[in-house]
Design brief:
142 residues, alpha+beta, binds zinc ion, 4-stranded antiparallel β-sheet, elongated, 35% helix
Length: 142
């Protein structure tokens, strides 16, 4: 193994770690999607597991990369299919004609600040002279 190979291995490792970290931040902590038909729970599925769920013969829900959406429906308005992907706590997709709802349980709360992005920007703007970003964070969280 020459030096270039070693550098390549390191790069691949870094990329893998970065991908893993990204995955962790995107999936949240054990979020699930609850599917209900006619107000009754049809099933609860982990957002961590990529899968396709047929809801009767009228709707198909897809879960991928920590988000859920209505992949297909036979309803005339198609509003549920065009709804954006959901991944945050209490977000819902509703198919009114078929009375099907997708609801996120236990995901990250909506409106919560993205701490990872703010951490990065804090370090860029406040690091010179201020090593302790934690003290700033505690005031920012008030
Ligand atoms: Zn629909």
């Amino acid at each position: 193994m020459n030096r270039r190979d070693a550098a390549l291995v390191v790069l691949v490792l870094i990329a893998a770690l970065a991908g893993f970290a990204l995955m962790l931040t995107q999936t949240g902590q054990g979020a699930q999607v609850e599917i209900a038909v006619n107000g009754e729970v049809y099933g609860i599925y982990d957002l961590d597991t990529d899968q396709t769920i047929e809801i009767g013969e009228k709707n198909i829900c897809r879960i991928e990369n920590g988000a859920a959406w209505m992949e297909w429906a036979d309803c005339p308005d198609q509003l549920c299919v065009h709804h954006s992907k959901i991944s945050r706590n209490n977000e819902t997709v509703v198919c009114l004609p078929n009375r099907v709802t997708l609801t996120i349980l236990g995901g990250e709360d909506e409106g919560q600040p993205d701490t990872i992005v703010s951490d990065a920007s804090l370090e860029n703007s406040f690091l010179p002279g201020y090593g302790e970003t934690t003290s700033f964070l505690s005031t920012a969280n008030k």
